[in-house]
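Appendix B, record 7
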Amino acid sequence: MSSQRQHPWFARSYVRLSQIAEKSGAAAHRKQVLAGLSGKVIEIGAGNGLNFKHYPDTVTEVLAVEPDDVLRTHAETAARNSAVPILVVAGHADALPADADSFDAAVASLVLCSVPDPASALAGLRRVLRPGGELRFYEHVRSGHRWFGRAEDLIDPIWSRVAGGCHPNRDTLVTIRTAGFEVSEVEQISFGLQHVLGRATKV
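Structure tokens (predicted):
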């Protein structure tokens, strides 16, 4: 989760709801999206750290960026229990506290729906990824179903205000491609909302 504003009420609700989602299938999705990663990884919108236990031991270090104070506290606890070294820091995707070309891979997990400017967030990730570096993503997106998509468009103004800046109707795959990434693998998942899970390479 990531937003320029603090959303303490939503953050506390998210912690509870995300645990339910984990048991309903989200944990398997997280494990799938992180499988095979190695080297130095940066994760934006780390939330409450639910990805951390799924990082393979081939990952040498993770820089986990989370702007929300409530969620970052939970992420710090999860990092202490992780099998791989994870440093949790405050920050935003469009101004990452990292040098250019310094990471082997980047992870965006249920975050591009809530950043104020997804294109800027992806530009930030592209900057810190080494040439040929990989982006792993797991995001909910606008439904391809005609009526569901329209419904998401209608509820977006209200939903984004009560759900921590989350927008249910973003076309994240298009945004990833136009941000300078080549999508090499993508899976469409129906998990409440429509989700996409996949890999892209910095070009």
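Remarks on this record: The chain has a mean pLDDT of 92. The chain has one domain: 8-202.
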